[in-house]
């Protein structure tokens, strides 16, 4: 399954690079940094797909997020783009804190950062362990913030409206 997800990610990034080339050239944003940032985001996705521990998941999320923060602020002449990137960065930093806090609670309860050992610990302890439930809540909230799946933030909608449109 991991190889299929990796191939899908390669294809999605390749298609986005192909379709964005004309748009970037038309709006005078065609710079090499775009492709470097996109490839760093792809590396973050690959790390996430290959993750076997909570630390590897954190590194993948951060590598992906930092690339996306820079891509939001890619239009250097736009004040709205810079504001959106700053809000996205600050809220992403808070989400990373929640994510790390959840990971530390899960490590304290299960004694491991490896996903298979955590799964075994969850199976043994079940939902009766309050620390485990609290750690999972922080972990899920941090991932939801960072992936913009939850509209907790005011920065994510602003990132959508801050896209270059001249």
Describe the 3D structure.
By secondary structure, the protein is mainly alpha-helical. It has 7 helices and no strands. It has helices at residues 2-26, 32-49, 54-72, 79-110, 115-125, 130-146, 155-161.
Largest beta-sheet characterization:
none
Report the end-to-end length measured between terminal Cα atoms.
Answer: 41 Å
What class do helices, strands and sheet pairing give?
mainly alpha
- Name the poorly predicted regions: none
Mean of all residue-level pLDDT scores:
85
Strand share of the residues? Answer: under 5%
In a few lines, what is going on in this structure?
This protein is mainly α. 78% of the residues lie in helices and 0% in strands. It has 7 helices and no strands.
Structural descriptors:
single chain, about 170 residues, elongated, 7 helices
Give the SSE map.
Elements: H1 2-26, H2 32-49, H3 54-72, H4 79-110, H5 115-125, H6 130-146, H7 155-161
